[in-house]
């Protein structure tokens, strides 16, 4: 082993000078294209001069695949094109994960930055930029309930500014555990999906409000703001976030924006933990929202809450879950309570599990039903 | 060499299974803290099980420094704390650049994502989040001059919504080559600097408009929108972006926002290429802006333009450049034209070169002078 280590160190020392150059020029001297798509396959490439092994790890692959060193130490692998969706991938260079330096399409998932691969197709037609685009704003509201100033992402549709007297319905769109107020606009492509649906006449122009569902957070962790020091597990703070959503965020939005402030113009949808928040919100405030969409949902609906909702009335209860989602039983339980209590609803099934591919599909589907 | 390669391949094969696990748990089994700051030093760490050599590359270091493998294959290096500023760094794992997976503070510089190290101090006091924060919005405007729909980042100060009759002065803040409409809000910390200065009573509440200065771009490349097919080197399109800025963006902003639409309430500042845009804007439209701040500026000012500006009047001409900036001669030339033509102005000098540390410092300095 000694000899190998010595040689490795010698090689390492030899490259010390080269490495600074390496980074500065890492898209420079040798033109590397990655990813490169054809109609049937995709090639990934990474220039890695001193690596022993380079692999590709990707969201649609069960395990990493080896890449092969080629000319100029460009490692490559060609794979059959996966199904049309937004996938993510990275390289593993001698055991360390590396994003593709050639690919600047990046999503943030909590505290991780993921390189995207968008495979075009019918399924992704609404995930790119439309011709006419709405405004995405990052606003701050004061929460007395949570004791902090908090950030909320707000989408206003194209034409909002040009129609100064128009009032708009509002969709409150909630993220899951590990997410934040940028989850739906980054991984969820919410602005792009709404822009495209509205442009095609498939969805009503609407405001979309994407709050931060972590009660102790002022904003996404990437902003570096201190967390609240309240213990939200204290029963005194039960459902504190949902209470803030319904009694602070909704009034804030209806004051700041030209929102149509009535139940028939309020929708609530959320994924996973946000599905739980959705169910809790309509349980605690049955007359607030007429359009209700828990997606791959956590949380549970009691018979009492279902009866209250039935009595109060609503326009749409649209439940969705993937067939292989680990949390499928939870959606089945909500479906059962709705059925047992005679509440009209849709239970939308898709392939796959607890993934953004499904949540983008759900938004693209139920947004076409809202406010009609 | 054969023996080494064989052994390396064997090691590589052995780790294939482990590597998928590696990524999933790469912040998991072994708790790695990076960066870790004390009052005097900073330690960087990376878990890299199969690497031969790991180095640290950082914006304040002339060349990469070696890291040492420790327990659990966590590589580390401790360095004296650099001066208070926002720095950037990454690791080089067997020759390949890797961002710090433990550190989710990331800036985007064009098409690159850079891990940040913020060293706290007087200089960075205004770069973090203030108690009261304004809204950052991404809006779209139609440019007839450039033939495309384009994105612009707009900051409105805290209190804008609560004072529905107040009118605000506007700073047009322009980026340099390689930048886009997110450069000032990401690397430049523009929203944080303004929030802090306004909160401390050091700057007037103002709207800040950060357009995209690349005439063929609809938006940052990360949005994936097609470029314009116009050839902007055609003399027919000379200064097309500056014309769009002054005759399309300014009216758009003054229609969409409660802007105080007069020269005394309009400021223009820009760095490098954006300094050139600033000088061109006040040369073509001498009566539009009363507050003029070219930073590390490209572009040139003619004697005729200086005379027109002098005749028309202005409130502030604030030129700034770093002492070791490669483009210092250009600022010196603008200074000379101003002096030769008897235009009152400030020439602010700082240490250092053509870097964001200087542009943050300049914004933090001249924003305190505007509209007073």
What are the SSEs and their pairings?
2 copies of one chain form a homodimer.
Chain A: H1 2-24, E1 36-37, E2 41-47, E3 54-58, E4 65-66, E5 68-69, E6 74-80, E7 86-93, E8 96-98, E9 106-109, E10 112-118, E11 135-143, E12 148-156, E13 170-174, H2 183-186, H3 190-199, E14 207-210, H4 240-256, E15 266-271, H5 273-284, E16 291-295, H6 303-312, E17 316-322, H7 328-340, E18 346-350, H8 356-366
Parallel strand pairs in A: 13-14, 13-15, 15-16, 16-17, 17-18
Antiparallel strand pairs in A: 1-2, 2-6, 3-4, 3-7, 5-6, 7-8, 7-10, 9-10, 11-12, 12-14
In short:
In chain A, 27% of the residues lie in helices and 26% in strands. The first copy, chain A, has 372 residues and is of the alpha/beta class.
Give keywords.
372 residues, homodimer, globular
H/E topology pattern of chain A = HEEEEEEEEEEEEEHHEHEHEHEHEH
Helix content of chain A: 25-40%
Q: What is the general shape of chain A?
A: globular
Based on the structure, what is the oligomeric state of the protein chains?
homodimer
Mean pLDDT of chain A: 92
* Strand line-up across the major sheet of chain A: 11-12-14-13-15-16-17-18
How many DSSP H or I helices of chain A? 8
Mind telling me the C-alpha Rg of chain A? 24 Å
Largest sheet of chain A: 8 strands, mixed
Of all chain pairs, the largest interface belongs to: A-B, 64 and 65 residues
């Amino acid at each position: 082993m000694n000899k190998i280590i010595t040689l490795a160190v010698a090689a390492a020392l030899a490259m010390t000078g080269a490495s600074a150059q390496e980074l500065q020029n890492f898209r420079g001297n040798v033109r590397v294209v990655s990813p490169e798509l054809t109609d049937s396959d995709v090639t990934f490439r990474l220039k890695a001069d001193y690596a022993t092994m380079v692999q590709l790890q990707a969201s649609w692959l069960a395990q990493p695949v080896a890449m092969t060193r080629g000319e100029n130490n460009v490692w490559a692998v060609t794979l059959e094109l996966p199904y049309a969706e937004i996938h993510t991938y990275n390289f593993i260079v001698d055991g360390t994960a590396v994003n593709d330096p050639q690919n600047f399409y990046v999503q943030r998932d909590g505290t991780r930055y993921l390189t995207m691969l968008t495979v075009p197709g019918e399924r992704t037609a609404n995930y790119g930029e439309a011709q006419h685009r709405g405004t995405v704003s990052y606003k701050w509201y004061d929460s007395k309930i949570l004791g902090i100033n908090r950030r909320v992402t707000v989408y206003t549709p194209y034409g909002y500014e040009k129609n100064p007297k128009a009032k708009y319905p509002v969709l409150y769109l909630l993220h899951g555990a590990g997410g934040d107020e940028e989850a739906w606009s980054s991984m969820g492509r919410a602005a792009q999906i709404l822009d495209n649906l509205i442009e095609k006449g498939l969805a009503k122009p609407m405001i979309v409000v994407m709050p931060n569902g972590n009660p102790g957070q002022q904003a996404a962790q990437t902003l570096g703001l201190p967390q609240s020091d309240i213990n939200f597990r204290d029963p005194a703070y039960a459902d504190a976030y949902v209470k803030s959503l319904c009694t602070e965020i909704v009034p804030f939005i209806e004051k700041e924006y030209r929102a149509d402030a009535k139940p028939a113009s309020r929708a609530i949808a959320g994924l996973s933990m946000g599905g739980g928040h959705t169910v809790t919100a309509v349980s605690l405030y049955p007359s607030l929202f007429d359009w209700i969409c828990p997606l791959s949902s956590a949380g549970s609906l009691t018979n009492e809450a279902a009866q209250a909702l039935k009595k109060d009335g609503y326009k749409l209860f649209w439940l969705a879950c993937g067939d292989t989602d680990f949390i499928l039983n939870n959606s089945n339980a909500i479906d059962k309570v709705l059925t047992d209590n005679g509440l009209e609803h849709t239970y939308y099934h898709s392939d796959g599990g607890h993934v953004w591919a499904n949540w983008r599909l759900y938004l693209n589907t139920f947004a076409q039903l809202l406010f009609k």
